[in-house]
Design brief:
Rossmann fold, seven-stranded mixed beta sheet, 27 helices, 15% strand, globular, binds thiamine diphosphate, binds 1-deoxy-D-xylulose-5-phosphate, binds magnesium ion, magnesium, Dxylulose-5-P_synthase, isoprene biosynthesis, 1-deoxy-D-xylulose-5-phosphate synthase activity
Length: 646
């Protein structure tokens, strides 16, 4: 169903059309944009509150700046829906985040207005600074604007970039979109600092004087620039008492301004355009602005799924049979259960307490379950510090966000062999968030680090056993990967058992072909049993559980008995679980075998439902069956090593 845009929005095919409108029409454009987002997201799903919060900022930027010549760089990009709609993608917006549709984030391939691909946070200032310095080198007179949220501002990368920008003369404007929220409430001292700045009467009085003076000096003409500096410097000395963090970093600070006052924003941006060098505009906004329920419960409405826009009822699938829980719920309930018994257990999340369900433990044990803000690197080293003092930290990080903390895993945890327990959530295809969020690479990047145990549960009970085993196993770090979403066991709350580290499970004996799986994807093989029977094949199935240490006894059994082996993983095929099996085979003299590896191929796979993406990668149910059938049909024909990957 195509949603009809409002009267003005219908005529805006690109920002040049927007710029033709008089200023007094922008309010209506904002109203229509909000409505269009509400209409579309309620039907098709997606991120919600963040875009509603930056409608005026988006309109003002495209109105004032000469985009795409001037560069807007969005941080994370989950808030870029107004931008997408204004920049030629209004009529495709209903395909947002769907298979084959628009990406949910800015993406360079998608539009010339998307200056930098995003999805992970806190990259915008670095990227915009790179562009600004490139412009300078090339002699271009572009403007460069990084739009970053208060949550994303907590990450080290943002500070690294400000530290660099502030010492440069690059022409860059940072817009700090301060809504006091990440997905969950924003964390840390910075948010309090921003609130203090926003509410301090003293600061605001001085700030108003600066703005008034700016207004006056603008009329001075060519010397305005120096005069502005002089005026500001005089006022800055008065502000020493309450010095400004951003000014201290060399960024000229402007604000706070009301991020929903479209007229004021346009004027402010027009002024800022004339001021060269690195600067920051602090805009205060409300996440979910314009949709009352979203303003009230901002975490729930960050990405609510489809909903009835009139009642606010979120549409959930209705089931008639008991459903398996999400792995996330099992993690959250299990860590709490264990923490009640063991006071050394602590939980850490970098800004994803609702997403990973650590919020279950946070409610009961706020001091032992900690959201450190968007700070994956810190989360890992903080966990290492806890472990160094004998605590038992569970550090839960989405697989793709762990990419950012790799050095900390190697340098701070594994080289020192500190028993941190990593839970890598969203391992495998993440779904609608797309390429930036797929947990594709963790098997290769974790299994190559000495000391680290690398495990993946096939179901909820196994996750509980692995978490329990990790607590008992105090001799090295331990990582457990599991996917986004449901497991397979409605009755999941089984007693926890210690399992032997490095021991797999034989799920079923068989003939001709052995299938080796790692993690949840093993259930697809179980679910195929009727189809195997119908096809007259009987493959053996082993759930390896650990890719490191790998179950050598089991592999000896497999390769002694079978000449044909299929490996399946929901992860990158290059260097992953299948590769580990190949290495083992070669190292152990099993060269006369056929092996087919199924997993995420060596290409970027975009967004879609998990099953759609697995199909594209060739390891959905049909793909697995096809691979096994193909292999079983040529049982006796091969005498050389045949290594195939899909
Ligand atoms: C490196 C990284 N960690 C975590 C996330 C998950 N994440 C996406 S949006 C978000 C909150 C961002 O807060 P903020 O920048 O203030 O934007 P807001 O949603 O408030 O507009 C988080 C934690 C991410 N995208 N990237
Ligand atoms: C933009 C972002 O990074 C998050 O909002 C992400 O979309 C959350 O994903 P989950 O819904 O899997 O928690
Ligand atoms: Mg925020």
């Amino acid at each position: 169903m195509l949603i009809q845009p409002g009267e003005l929005l219908a005529k805006i095919d690109n920002p040049a059309d927007l710029r033709k409108l008089p200023l007094d029409k922008l309010y209506q454009v904002c109203e229509e944009l909000r409505q269009y987002i509400i209409d579309n997201v309620s039907i098709y799903g997606g991120h919600f509150g963040a875009s509603l919060g930056v409608t005026e900022l988006s309109v003002a930027m495209h109105y004032v700046y000469n985009t795409p010549y001037d560069r807007i760089v969005w941080d994370v990009g989950h808030q870029a829906y107004n931008h997408k709609i204004l920049t030629g993608r209004r009529d495709q917006f209903h395909t947002n985040r769907q298979y084959g549709g628009l990406s949910g984030f800015p993406k360079r391939d998608e539009s010339e207005y998307d200056t930098f691909g995003v999805g992970h946070s806190s990259t915008s200032i670095s990227a915009a600074l790179g562009m600004a310095i490139a412009s300078k080198e090339k002699g271009d007179d572009r403007q460069h604007i990084a739009v970053i949220g208060d949550g994303s501002m907590t990450a080290g990368m943002a500070f690294e970039a400000m530290n660099h920008a502030g010492a440069s003369d690059a022409n860059i404007l940072i817009i700090l979109n301060d809504n006091r929220m990440a997905i969950d409430p924003n964390q840390g001292a910075l948010k309090d600092y921003l609130t203090d700045i926003t509410t301090s009467p003293f600061y605001n009085k001085i700030k108003d004087e600066v703005w008034n003076m700016l207004g006056k000096v603008k009329k001075i003409g060519p010397h305005a620039q120096q005069a502005v500096s002089a005026a500001e410097n005089a006022l800055k000395s008065a502000l020493l008492e309450q010095s400004n963090l951003f000014e201290a970093l060399g960024l000229r600070y402007f604000g706070p301004v009301d991020g929903h006052d479209i007229n004021h924003l346009v004027h402010v941006m027009e002024d800022l355009k004339k001021i060269p060098g690195p600067k920051i505009l602090h805009a205060v906004t409300v996440k979910g602005k314009g949709y009352a329920l979203a303003e009230k419960d901002q975490t729930k409405w960050h990405a609510p799924g489809k909903f009835d826009k009139l009642t606010g009822e979120i549409k959930k699938k209705v089931f008639t049979t008991p459903q398996a829980p999400k792995y996330q719920t099992v993690f959250g309930e299990t860590i709490l259960e264990m923490a009640r018994e063991n006071e050394k257990i602590m939980g850490i999340t970098p800004a994803m307490p609702s997403g990973c369900s650590l919020n279950i433990m946070m409610k009961e044990m706020p001091d032992r379950a900690i959201d450190v803000g968007i700070a994956e690197q810190h989360a890992v080293t903080f966990a290492a510090g806890l472990a160094a003092e004998g605590m038992i930290p569970f550090c839960n990080i989405y697989s793709s966000f762990m990419q950012r903390a790799y050095d900390q895993v190697v340098h701070d945890v594994c080289i020192q062999n500190l028993p941190v327990i990593f839970c890598l959530d969203r391992a495998g295809f993440a779904g609608a968030d797309g390429a930036t969020h797929h947990g594709a690479y963790d098997i290769p990047f974790m299994r190559c680090i000495p000391n680290l145990v690398v495990a993946a549960p096939m179901n909820e009970a196994e996750l509980r056993h692995m978490m329990h085993t990790a607590v008992k196993h105090r001799t090295s770090p331990f990582s457990i990967r599991y996917p986004r979403g449901q497991g397979v066991m409605p009755e999941w709350k089984v007693p926890m058992e210690e399992i032997q580290v490095g021991k797999g499970r034989k799920i079923k004996d068989g003939e001709d072909v052995a299938v080796l799986t790692f993690g949840h994807i093993g259930n697809y093989v179980v679910q195929l049993s009727d189809r195997f029977q119908a096809e007259g094949i009987n493959p053996a199935h082993y759930d390896m559980r650990f890719v490191k240490p790998i179950d050598e006894e089991m592999l000896h059994e497999v390769f002694t008995k079978f000449d044909k082996v299929v490996t399946i993983e929901d992860g990158a095929i290059m260097g992953g679980f299948g590769s580990a099996i190949l290495e083992w085979m070669m190292d152990n003299g099993f060269t006369n075998k056929q092996i087919v590896r199924l997993g995420i191929p060596d290409t970027i796979i975009e967004q879609g439902e998990q099953l759609e993406l697995q199909k594209e990668a060739g390891f959905d149910h049909d793909g697995i069956l096809e691979a096994i059938l193909k292999l079983s049909s040529n049982v006796k024909s091969k005498s050389k090593v045949l290594v195939k990957s899909k």
